[in-house]
Amino acid sequence: MAFSLFRVAVPLCVVVLSVTVAILGYNQAMPPPLPAALGVCSLAGMALIWRDIGSKMKGESRTLSSLLGQYLAVKGVGWLGRRQRRKLEADTLNVKRVQEETLLRRLKKNEHTCYGRQYDFSSIRDSDDFRARHPITTYEHYRELIIRIAAGEEKVIIAEKPLSLAMTSGTSGASAMLLSTKDTNTEFFLQGVTVCLDAMQQAFPASDSLQRTTKFFYTPTFRQSEAGIPIGPNSSTPASSRHMLNLYTTPAPAFEVPSEKDTLYLHLLFALKDPSVGTLESNFASTVFYAFIALQERWQELVEDIERGKVSSALALEPEMRARLEALMKPDPERAAQLQTHFQDGFRGIAKRLWPHLHLVLAVDSGSNEIYGEMLRENYCQGIPFYSPFYAATEGLIGVNLWPQEANRRYLLCPRSMFCEFLPESSMEEEAPHTLLMEDVKEGHNYELIITNASGLFRYRIGDIVKVVGFHNQCPIVEFQYRRGQMLNVRGEKVSEVLFLGALKKAVAQWSGAQLVDYCCAESGILGDLIGASDPHYQVFIELKGVRNLTEKQRYKVRQFWQIRYL
User: Fold this and answer.
1) In the 8-state DSSP scheme, what is residue 230?
2) β-strands 396-400, 475-483: how paired?
């Protein structure tokens, strides 16, 4: 990688220096041979850069500005990634010191806020002091404070005005409204994105090529607080990636389409036009999975659009938007014929046939997305490696996956992103539990994460239970286990989603040819009168492929399996 940077930096320096001296020579009557010689060097430097670009190109139909922009972006982020990776490696050698620095920096920045004065941040000297003075908190501790911030009050919890009010997904309880700050976003990019891109390029060298990525993401609908602060999701969006949109197959105008369904169609349309796509990317594997479901349902319509160079009339587009998009299309009957052949051959392994140079699916496929990653690998994306880069939440970056090629998704905690405490699984129900720090945790044990972040959460229970599976130098490596609010518990058995999904997969295996597509499980008490009077039990809803009209014998076998498994 160092040689690659050298190969780019030297020609660029030669070009800049040569052009500069040539201009000065022209203006200041420099001896004629020198500007000429430097002009030759300039051309040679440009030739070396172009040769490097040419070696990384796949496919055609790219403008020079597009290629050069992507080339410089990849090199720039690559340099940052290597620099941040070195910092991370150094930090893992002394996590106690780094965690103390991270905590004290957070407290110092916010010591003059209402909250900082309430808990006397200015007098806290170390993590022991902090844990003795500040209680463990949940969202209710912050609810009224965030309402005050939304109304326009300043310096309530954090010193600066938040960029937005970020809504959590609410997967294991009511949705919460948290603060999103510049520091949170900067940390996510520097400590997360650049480090993971470095790990990705080391594990998958083909990802260093100048191929476009198809990224399935959408422009969310934001509302405004009383003070005009945007309220909405905190995940990756086209607006947050606006400087990188030229790296994607989907053209910028498509991200202005308000309908997610129509935007997904456009993602697929422009991806299918380009046979040299290198990466499929989304925040979550579930989004990629449902994109392939849509592709399977609408492939004939998409092929027809590519053949005619038009955008389907089924899309509810404004005339001006349709014209902008169709200006980027041109009839391509040859590509349409190729696509039709691929689709008619079936959808198992379709991704690699549509895009022969596809080398990676980049999406989180751990936790609740594990099932979607498995289905993609077994069906649409056979033979293509997956990389789950981050362990992150609305609260910020938690960990990075430095081992892209390993099947188990494990994440190195980022010691400069958050100050982390660990609540042993056996102590989660205690009123005043004692927490452990990074240097105290034990391999093989489960803990609930408690974090202090850059956006006004202090000793906050995010509800994630993780297992410490090892250490990188002194820093814990974790695997996500389950969300605290997702435990099934009708008879005191406390079944996590991991255990439930494992049992469900084995149960579905009882039916020959069945494939699990999706599932939902509810405790009977939640459904109330909908299911009538009965003893407490689980009501399981499953979506399957490959079987229809289950017999009573098949149903009985599965019920029996679950009873053996759990009761």
Assistant:
1) E
2) unpaired
Query: What is the per-residue pLDDT for 317?
Result: 93
Asked if 286 and 372 count as a contact pair (C-beta separation under 8 A), the reply is: yes
Count CB atoms within 10 A of the CB of residue 259.
13
Determine the pLDDT at residue 566: 44
pLDDT value of position 430: 87
The dihedral over CA atoms of 452, 454, 456, 462, expressed in degrees to the nearest 10, equals -40
Q: For the whole model, what pTM was predicted?
A: 0.82
CA distances from 146 to 126, 181, 225, 452, 455 (A): 27, 13, 11, 16, 11
The rounded radius of gyration (Å) of the Cα atoms in the chain is 27
Q: Rounded to 5 degrees, what angle do the CA atoms 479, 376, 277 make?
A: 105
Q: What is the H or E stretch that residue 299 is in?
A: helix 285-308
Instruction: Tell me how far apart the alpha carbons of residues 346 and 426 are, in angstroms, rounded to a whole number.
Output: 50
Q: Are 472 and 413 in contact (CB under 8 A)?
A: no
118 vs 122, 154, 265, CA distance in Å? 10, 15, 52
CB 366 within 8 A of CB 285: no
Q: For 267, how many CA atoms within 13 A lie in the half-sphere containing its CB? A: 26
Bridge partners for 183 per DSSP: none
**Cα gap 165→176, rounded to integer Å:** 10
Please count the other Cβ atoms lying within 10 Å of the Cβ belonging to residue 312: 17
Q: What's the token pair of residue 400?
A: 């990075």
